[in-house]
User: Which sequence fits this backbone?
């Protein structure tokens, strides 16, 4: 039986924890529950808009100031409440970027929740930050000597899109209605009731694209004519792109990748560009890709798809091109050659291509991931940073504490940054 007191959560026993912004929904209420179960000395929460208040009412503190005054407020709060640990969701939000600096300056631990490095049944909780802010070692020689730790059986997480949509709509609505009490708040993306309709638009597009692309995989499976590279897009407002890559936008990444493929991609290969499922309601790159196909005479060699079975695509692709999506880790699990165009936690010698996109097009098999290294890397990352759980739904037949974290007794491969 799972016990939170024997899990990685036990490191917060006796700690005073401060929660800032979390995902849409009651996830941070669940985190507070698990922290209480392991004996955290106290759990405080700061709310910044009506959506935060909706899902963490009552005992939370409200910050109604602007971004310029936030660091001083947080510093004083940490001193007054003797905070030991700050927890956030998304380390690239402006509020959380400032919080990182304040926490580090005062010797306070800074913990970041993010989507799971290992999908689909995990979320990430990592000290210091993720991707470009990670403290996970990046040298393969350290992993080569790693003795894999025993891990608990993985629990399958139920589908969560419907509940996530419900929470998002409620969050956006509450934030809009409570605007008079948080006039100086600036969200990291649009925050109105109309923007909340993204989830409705996203679901409608999902149905439409799935019907339209019903046979899209037929010519992308083994023995079909031609070979293909898979380009994995990320969400439009993904801060991991702007903070940890040379690109200012997904459009810029598409332009750069298609231009390179036109100049250097072998004639017997195609480019399959896959839209991010959580970005359906926000963006559509059909016009941009059509323009690039015309410019480079690639109409017969480029496919733009939306809702297709990702494991099938990964298993059959010659190679995968991504900025720093965690889909790259899934590609490595399938043994598919992968190249990252930004900073990614898994971008290292032996796992990903290190010599540039032009060389990758011509000989992807030369960059096939080392299976033994990948197994050790995945085990280490899972043991140290992954929680078996979900931001929106609780695990089936879970106990009071449903976020299952490894015991955390394994030693780091390198000193923490």
Assistant:
């Amino acid at each position: 039986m799972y016990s939170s007191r024997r899990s990685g959560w036990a490191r917060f026993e006796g700690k005073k924890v401060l929660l800032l912004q979390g995902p849409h929904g009651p996830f941070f209420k669940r985190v507070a529950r698990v922290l209480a179960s392991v004996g955290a000395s106290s759990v405080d929460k700061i709310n910044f808009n009506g959506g935060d208040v909706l899902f963490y009412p009552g005992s939370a503190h409200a910050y109604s100031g602007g971004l310029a005054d936030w660091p001083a407020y947080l510093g004083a709060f940490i001193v007054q409440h003797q905070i030991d640990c700050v927890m956030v969701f998304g380390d690239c939000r402006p509020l959380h970027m400032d919080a990182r600096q304040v926490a580090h300056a005062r010797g306070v631990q800074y913990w970041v929740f993010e989507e799971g490095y290992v999908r689909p049944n995990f979320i990430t909780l990592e000290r210091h930050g993720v991707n470009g802010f990670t403290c996970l070692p990046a040298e393969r020689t350290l992993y080569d000597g790693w003795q894999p730790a025993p891990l608990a059986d993985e629990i399958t997480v139920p589908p969560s899109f419907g509940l996530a949509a419900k929470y998002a709509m409620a969050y956006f609505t509450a934030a809009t209605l409570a605007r008079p009490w948080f006039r100086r708040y600036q969200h990291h993306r649009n925050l109105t009731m109309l923007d909340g309709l993204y989830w409705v638009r996203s679901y409608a597009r999902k149905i439409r694209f799935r019907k339209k692309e019903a046979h899209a995989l037929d010519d992308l499976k083994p023995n079909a004519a031609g070979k293909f590279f898979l380009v994995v897009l990320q969400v439009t407002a993904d801060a991991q792109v702007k903070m940890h890559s040379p690109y200012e936008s997904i459009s810029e990444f598409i332009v750069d990748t298609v231009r390179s493929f036109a100049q250097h991609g072998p004639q017997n290969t195609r480019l399959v560009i896959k839209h991010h499922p959580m970005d359906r309601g926000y963006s559509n790159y059909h016009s941009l890709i059509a323009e690039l196909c015309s410019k480079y005479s690639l109409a017969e060699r480029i496919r733009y798809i939306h809702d297709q079975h990702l494991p099938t695509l990964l298993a059959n692709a010659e190679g995968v091109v991504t900025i720093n999506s965690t889909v790259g880790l899934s590609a490595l699990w399938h043994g598919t050659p992968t190249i990252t165009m930004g900073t990614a936690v898994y971008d290292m010698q032996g796992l990903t291509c290190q010599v540039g996109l032009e060389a990758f097009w011509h000989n992807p098999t030369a960059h096939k991931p080392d299976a033994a290294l990948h197994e050790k890397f995945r085990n280490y990352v899972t043991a140290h940073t992954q929680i078996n759980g979900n931001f929106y739904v609780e695990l089936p037949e879970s106990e009071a504490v449903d976020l299952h974290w490894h015991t955390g007794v394994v030693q780091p491969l390198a000193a923490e940054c």
User: Anything to note?
Assistant: The longest strand covers residues 109-115. The chain has a mean pLDDT of 89. The chain is about 35% helix and 15% strand. The longest helix spans residues 161-177.
